[in-house]
C-alpha cells in the first residue's frame, strides 16, 4: 500500500519597502500553491518587510505587530477560505520593549494552532538580530495541526542538530524552517558555493538523522544595507524540500521568485525508523556534556 502524500508549498519571494505589497505577494503565492494542491504552505522568514536586521535602527521597531494581529487575521481568512495550513513568519511585539522573531501556524479552519519564537539569535555583520529579538521561551515543541505535528523553527535554528532532534523527540512529523540567508557581495564565487552547500547539507542531515521531511523556505533578491556599512545581502533563494533520507524532492531557483510545490510522505518515518533505528541506539547516558557550553580540557 502506497504511503499517503501530503502536498506542500513554499513561497519564495523578494521583498520591497511596503508591508501591504509584501503580504499581498505572500497571499498570491499561497493561492498559487493551493491551486496546485498544497494543503500546507510555508512562507519565508520576516516576509512582511525588507530584512531590516542589516542595521541597528530603532525606527524599525514600528514594523512589529501583535499576535494575534493584522497579519494573522488576514492570513486566517485565507486559511479558512482555502482550507490550507499556513506557516508565517512575523516580527512580534509581545510588549513594550519585548520583541520576538516568531513563526505562527494557522490551521485550515483559521485558528491559531500555535507559535514558535526563534531560539538561536545571530549577531553578525549584516545580521544584527540581537538588537531586535529576545530569544524564544517556548522550547522546541511541535505544533499540532489538522495535517500533522509540525516542528517549526526559524533560520539560524537550522544550524543546530540539537534543536531538530528535540523537535523529533517531541513528536514532530515534519521539520520546517522559514529562512533569510544570503551572500555578501564581496564573497568569492567559490565561497558562495561553499556557504550555500553547507546551508542545504546541514538541513538535509536533520532529515536523515530524524527520519523526517524538511521544508526550508528562503527569501530571494538583493537588499541594500541602509547604512552602507556592508555591501548588502544577496539572498540566494534555493528553497527546497528534502525527504526523510535527505533526498531533494524539489528545489526553487536561486535568482527569482518561485512557488515550489511537491508531495511529501510523513508516514515513511515509521518504516525508516525501523530500518535505521537512530533513536533506539542513542546513548543518552553518555551525553551529559551536551548541557555544557564547552568541555574544557582541564
What does this entry look like structurally?
The protein is an alpha+beta fold. The chain has a single domain (6-291), classed as Nitrilase/N-carbamoyl-D-aminoacid amidohydrolase (4-Layer Sandwich), CATH 3.60.110.10. Helix content is 23%, strand content 29%. The protein contains five helices and 17 strands. The protein has helices at 19-35, 70-82, 161-169, 189-210, 268-275; strands at residues 6-12, 40-43, 85-95, 98-106, 112-117, 123-124, 127-128, 143-145, 148-152, 174-179, 182-184, 214-218, 220-223, 233-236, 240-242, 248-251, 258-264. A six-stranded mixed sheet has the order 5-4-3-2-1-17. The mean pLDDT is 96.
Q: How confident is the prediction overall: mean pLDDT?
A: 96
Distance between the termini: 56 Å
- The strand count comes to 17
Q: Give me the Rg, rounded.
A: 19 Å
Strand content: 25-35%
Helical segment count: 5
Task: Write down the secondary-structure element order.
Answer: EHEHEEEEEEEHEEHEEEEEEH
The helix content is: 10-25%
The CATH topology, please?
Answer: Nitrilase/N-carbamoyl-D-aminoacid amidohydrolase
* Overall CATH architecture: 4-Layer Sandwich
- Strands across the major sheet, in which order? 5-4-3-2-1-17
Task: Determine the CATH superfamily.
Answer: Carbon-nitrogen hydrolase
- The shape is globular
Structural class category: alpha+beta
Mind describing the biggest β-sheet?
A: 6 strands, mixed
Amino acid at each position: 500500500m502506497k504511503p499517503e502524500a501530503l502536498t506542500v508549498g513554499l513561497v519564495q519571494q523578494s521583498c520591497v519597502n511596503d508591508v501591504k505589497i509584501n503580504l499581498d505577494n505572500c497571499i498570491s503565492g499561497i493561492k498559487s500553491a493551493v491551486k496546485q494542491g498544497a494543503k500546507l504552505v510555508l512562507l519565508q522568514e520576516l516576509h512582511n518587510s525588507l530584512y531590516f536586521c542589516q542595521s541597528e535602527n530603532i525606527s524599525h521597531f514600528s514594523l512589529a505587530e501583535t499576535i494575534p494581529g493584522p497579519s494573522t487575521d488576514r492570513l486566517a481568512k485565507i486559511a479558512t477560505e482555502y482550507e490550507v495550513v499556513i506557516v508565517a513568519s512575523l516580527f512580534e511585539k509581545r510588549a513594550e520593549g519585548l520583541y520576538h522573531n516568531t513563526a505562527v501556524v494557522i490551521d485550515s479552519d483559521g485558528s491559531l494552532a500555535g507559535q514558535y519564537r526563534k531560539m538561536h539569535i545571530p549577531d553578525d555583520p549584516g545580521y544584527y538580530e540581537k538588537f531586535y529579538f529576545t530569544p524564544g521561551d517556548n522550547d522546541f515543541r511541535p505544533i499540532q495541526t489538522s495535517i500533522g505535528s509540525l516542528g517549526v523553527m526559524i533560520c539560524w535554528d537550522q544550524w543546530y542538530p540539537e534543536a531538530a532532534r528535540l523537535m523529533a523527540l517531541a513528536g514532530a512529523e515534519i521539520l520546517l524552517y522559514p529562512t533569510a540567508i544570503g551572500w555578501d557581495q564581496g564573497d568569492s564565487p567559490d565561497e558562495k558555493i561553499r556557504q550555500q552547500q553547507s546551508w542545504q547539507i546541514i538541513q538535509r542531515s536533520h532529515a536523515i538523522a530524524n527520519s523526517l521531511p524538511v521544508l526550508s523556505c528562503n527569501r530571494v533578491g538583493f537588499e541594500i544595507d541602509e547604512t552602507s556599512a556592508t555591501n548588502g545581502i544577496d539572498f540566494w533563494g534555493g528553497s527546497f524540500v528534502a525527504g526523510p533520507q535527505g533526498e531533494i524532492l524539489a528545489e526553487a531557483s536561486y535568482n527569482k521568485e518561485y512557488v515550489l510545490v511537491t508531495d511529501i510522505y510523513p508516514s515513511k518515518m515509521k518504516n525508516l525508523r525501523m530500518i535505521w533505528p537512530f533513536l533506539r541506539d542513542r546513548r543518552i547516558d553518555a551525553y551529559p556534556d551536551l548541557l555544557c557550553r564547552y568541555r574544557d580540557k582541564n
